[in-house]
Design brief:
about 70 residues, alpha+beta, about 40% strand, globular
Length: about 70
């Protein structure tokens, strides 16, 4: 399921990405790698999402989150 559809406060694991080299590089720079644990902190109906990876929190756009695929851990 895309990260943009994930519920809040559920531990997730990144399973893949949909996009070109630039998108994959940007996600890798943020710390999104396949197999990483992700926790969705804020996922409201509109606006950016707040996600936690390792010890950091990021606000990412819903469009970017739609290209990240996750599954419950």
């Amino acid at each position: 399921m895309p990260l943009s559809m994930a519920p809040e406060k559920i531990n997730l694991m990144v399973t893949g990405f949909r996009g070109g080299f630039g998108l994959r590089r940007r996600l890798a720079d943020l710390g999104f790698n396949i197999g990483m644990d992700v926790l969705v902190m804020v996922n409201q109906s509109a606006g950016p999402m707040v996600v936690a990876i390792k010890d950091s929190r990021f606000a990412i756009s819903r469009g970017l989150a739609h290209h990240i695929f996750v599954e419950p851990k």
